[in-house]
Amino acid sequence: MTKLEFEELQLKFNASGMTLKSFLKKEGVAYSTYNYWSRKIKEESRSLPIAPIELRETSHDAPSEPMLSGVGLPGVTIAFPNGVRAHFGSGSEGVLMDVLTKSMSHVLPQ
After folding, report:
1. Whole-angstrom Cα distance, residue 20 to residue 77?
2. What is the C-alpha separation between 1 and 52, in angstroms, rounded?
3. Cα torsion at 37, 43, 49, 50 (round to 10°)?
4. Residue (of 57, 56, 53, 100) closest to 81 by Cα position
């Protein structure tokens, strides 16, 4: 069984209205296999690191922020602990929110 097959099995089970034992018997899936994949998926979601990041609005007089020909770029820069910086210029707030929402979907409540 693959991760995708397990996820499809989960969706099918959730829609079935059956008990897990009955559903697995009907599908021909051993409980040990189901339990293995269930634990594996939970461990993967728990093992995703949440790194502290710094969000800061950039201004024209902040020399450490992104520069273009000596002129500060307005917008938002995300500074990651490993030194990588992602800059989103003014007007790209929607893109920034999409990126943050997708990257944090594993920890944000649904």
Report:
1. 47
2. 35
3. 100
4. 53
Predicted confidence (pLDDT) at residue 61 exceeds the cutoff of 60: no
Structure tokens at 27: 């599908």
User: At residue 63, what is the residue type?
Assistant: P
Long-range contacts of range 88-96, CB-CB < 8 Å, 24 or more positions apart?
Answer: none
Query: Cα(34)–Cα(21) distance, rounded to whole angstroms?
Result: 10
- 58 bridge partner residues: 75
pTM for the structure as a whole = 0.43
For residues 50-58, average pLDDT: 55
Burial (CB count <10 Å: 0-12, 13-18, 19+), residue 88: buried
